[in-house]
Amino acid sequence: xxxxxxxxxxxxxxxxxxxxxxxxxxxxxxxxxxxxxxxxxxxxxxxxxxxxxxxxxxxxxxxxxxxxxxxxxxxxxxxxxxxxxxxxxxxxxxxxxxxxxxxxxxxxxxxxxxxxxxxxxxxxxxxxxxxxxxxxxxxxxxxxxxxxxxxxxxxxxxxxxxxxxxxxxxxxxxxxxxxxxxxxxxxxxxxxxxxxxxxxxxxxxxxxxxxxxxxxxxxxxxxxxxxxxxxxxxxxxxxxxxxxxxxxxxxxxxxxxxxxxxxxxxxxxxxxxxxxxxxxxxxxxxxxxxxxxxxx
Length: 296
Known about the structure:
The chain is mainly alpha-helical and 296 residues long.
């Protein structure tokens, strides 16, 4: 019995030491953006493109713009989007631009804690320093809202935030945007939008049991979306098979109306309403060009 107790104590001690080490494991890289000057108008456009308004505003609950509180149920628990207004207690008013850059591109909070991947920071890693400065300038114009968003309601053991450090080590591969030199300007612009700010792959790529996107099935469609629905494949082959053209896809991204006269519903309807409808015609065509010609 004594040997069993000693063994159990040792195992618990080792587990405790491992947890402590995990808790203290530093993540993130230093950021220097103090000299960057942002354009708030361009930043507001990027915020629309990135889905910030859609994900951080509880429209149905009468929430104020970017005050957070939007509910996102998943198999891992229920997430609530945080307050992104300039309120210093409840929002990001006390942050620096470097804090903002680290959060957006690296998924690391000002306190050094990892964010859950419900926040699509792996896509936002495509932002340039100027993109981040522009976004930051735009967010500085948002009126403060003194409302605290709800805490996430996670299923154990996913409520242990430090465990995300292991998840990051296994699955996170944030890559900066690199244009393809043999492709057109429109194609590359579309690639940047789709794989970066618009984070299309977040909903249109299946995930594994731990919630990581399956890179080999990029844009092949997914089920178990937060709204309970499924997303269709949006690979070049799938889109062409369904009769999409650059013109019709660009138009659908503006209006939500599909070639057969039906309209987008669910999450995609919200994406159009709160995001792509605000994009320029040039950018909508760039998205359509990239999606329809990506596999050629």
